[in-house]
From TrEMBL:
Protein name, as recorded: S8 family serine peptidase
Pfam entry (one): Peptidase_S8
Keywords assigned by UniProt, alphabetized: Hydrolase, Membrane, Protease, Serine protease, Signal, Transmembrane, Transmembrane helix
InterPro entries noted in UniProt: Peptidase_S8/S53_dom, Peptidase_S8/S53_dom_sf, Peptidase_S8_subtilisin-like, Peptidase_S8_subtilisin-rel
Organism: Streptomyces anulatus
Amino acid sequence: MRPPARLLYGAGLAAALLLPVVPPAQAAPPARTPTDLYAADGKKGQELPGMPSALDPRAEEALCTPASKERAKKQDWSRQRLDLDRLHRHTTGAGVTVALISTGVAPGAEGLDGRVTARGEAADDCVGQGTFLAGLIAGNGGPAPRLAGVAPGAKVLALRGTDRRGQPDPALVTAAVRAATTARADVIAVAVALPRKDTALTRAVAEARRAGAVVVAAATPEPPPRGSADAIPSRTYWPAGEPGVLSVADMLPAGARPDSALPTGTVDLAAPGAGVVSGGPRGKGHYLGAGVAVATAYTAGAAAAVRAAHPEEPADAVTRRLTATAYPADIPQLDAYAAVTTVLGDAGTPAAGAERAAEPVAVRDTSGTDRATGRAVLFVLLGSAGVLSLLWAGFALTRARARGWRPAGTPDES
């Protein structure tokens, strides 16, 4: 049965009115990384290739992450959330060395040239994640200074804690922690998480802490690429579970952890970990990254900034400062600017009446904006539906009156 022409006309009119408020569907971007990972950047995303955390271990040959041909056009939400523009007026982390235990770092990567020490296999970053994280810690942004890392004046000691494909190895992580301690790194960032406690690693971490290093570690591994993380029970991962280690989890722009995040009860801080922009080991383009390692890098950069601004404070005091100045939430959220500028009392908490800076710290949470946008769209949809209903009723009444209130299709008896 064909629908009446008037009904088709009404449906077309409704579609015409509603089109301006319904965002157009976008085709999924083609796979541009070996693991088909594409990190989202909220509702105003930048279309950049995703940076994987590891390569496919089943592939016969490790195909390294290709160079990005895209450049970011704006500062992402994470740098705004951490107030990096204002932070850099107080400190850039100069004089501090951060040891990054990840997939390696390309010493000549844009924005890092001259400040990365990487020997042997640590200079070969096939995956690309280590170089990406180094940019978040100490990158200067190259031609885009607003994409600088937390501590763009710091130095990076690159150490490999994974095989060439990005799979974590306990022996490599232990050796890397020991190498960082020997090099007297001020901050040690362990961007991988191991499922089992390792005696040798426990000793290495304890030695690093006795040497005065701030140890920051990923609270969990990245979630599995397939299946649900809900089936994985909550547990402690290592070395994040070691005493004195600052355990970090990732958070979305609204402050919540991703739905796919692995559960754990040992988290000290949450930091931005979705839709984050940084560079890679090849080319001059940018990528989008996500995950616990990204949050760990941001926190390590904040620790470097604190160490540079407060060189008299020992490692434990730096850790207390990062947690005491965090934005209060179910999991305290890293506030790099507040960590550097807040005056702390004797107990390691913000002193009564102390000001963090001449200007109040604005903690940017996009959840309110998202909710307001959702309500606005709903109101427009409902309003449009109401207008359409009135127009259709008027149209129907006019036609019925013209027919002498006879049903449609009834022959005229006159």
